[in-house]
Design brief:
- By secondary structure, the protein is mainly beta.
- The protein has one domain (3-226).
- It is 10% helix and 49% strand.
- The strands form three sheets. It has an eight-stranded antiparallel barrel. The chain has a three-stranded antiparallel beta sheet with strand order 2-1-13.
- Strand 10 (158-167) and strand 11 form a beta hairpin.
- The longest helix has 16 residues, at 3-18.
- The chain is globular.
- The chain starts with a helix and ends in a 25-residue tail after the last strand.
Length: 251
């Protein structure tokens, strides 16, 4: 994406972020890495990359499945990388997530966009891979191999407020998930806050993709915790649906 287009997309990201009720804050959380040769570390952002298959039915609907590797933890308002905060994720163990969603496409789109995507429902699950050997099939992101040592940390099937806006130069998005519930293993990994009751907000930019047939989308993804909405509990989200942060689609 060219610099001028990137500047435009960042400005649009800020605009749609302002339309959501809560502010995007870097709220601290703690993870216990002592079982993997580390310590209890304080972080405020998860980061990684993903690939996704998104299918358009030609009638204004889409479905998506994705696999995301989340092997970076950041702290200090997102300015300190994993080594600076003492994290061993990516070195001694891996984190990954799976995602499914379906929704609708509108052309012309909302807020002056060429087109927009709205997720109607979806699911998200976060896993810890102790042996760092889990792989996903690029033709089916939910077809995983070498999962016997993996632990489900938490999941959500409550897609909250979301929007994706596509313009001629690319697009911007803002997505949330609600009611992310930790498993027993998740409680031993995410040790603070207790209870783990936050909303995760994901926003960023992505390259334009054809809204037809089946598209393979790759890119970067990050998630930060927000101030909780009054009626919701823990939320953890990846901004997928073909809307990953700084998505780069290769022809």
């Amino acid at each position: 994406m060219k610099l001028k287009a990137l500047v435009k997309s960042l400005a649009l990201t800020a605009g749609i972020a302002a339309s959501f009720s809560s502010q995007a804050d870097f709220l601290d959380f703690q993870v216990d890495e002592t079982p993997y040769g580390g310590e209890v570390v304080t972080a405020d952002k998860l980061n990684g990359g993903y690939f996704e298959l998104i299918s358009f039915d030609g009638a204004g609907n889409f479905t998506a499945t994705a696999f995301a590797s989340m092997n970076q933890l950041f702290g200090n308002e997102g300015t300190a990388n994993g080594s600076q905060i003492g994290s061993v994720v990516g070195a001694n163990y891996n984190l990954y997530a799976t995602f499914t969603a379906n929704g609708t496409v509108m052309t012309p789109g909302a807020e002056g966009a060429n087109s927009s995507l709205q997720g109607n429902s979806g699911s998200f699950s976060l896993f810890l891979d102790q042996n760092q050997d889990t792989t996903a099939d690029v033709t089916n992101p939910l077809n995983l191999s070498n999962t016997t040592d993996d632990m489900l940390l938490g999941s959500s099937s409550d897609l909250g407020r979301n929007i994706g806006l596509l313009y001629g130069f690319g697009g911007v998005f803002d997505f949330t998930f609600r009611d992310f519930e930790l498993t027993a293993d998740g409680d031993t990994y995410f040790v603070s806050p207790t209870p783990f009751h936050m909303t995760v907000r994901v926003d960023g930019d992505f390259d334009t993709i054809p809204l037809e047939g089946e598209q393979l989308v790759t890119g970067d993804v990050s998630a930060v915790f927000d101030v909780p909405e009054p009626s919701t509990i823990a939320v953890l989200s990846l901004g997928l649906l073909g809307l990953g942060a700084t998505s780069r689609r290769k022809s």
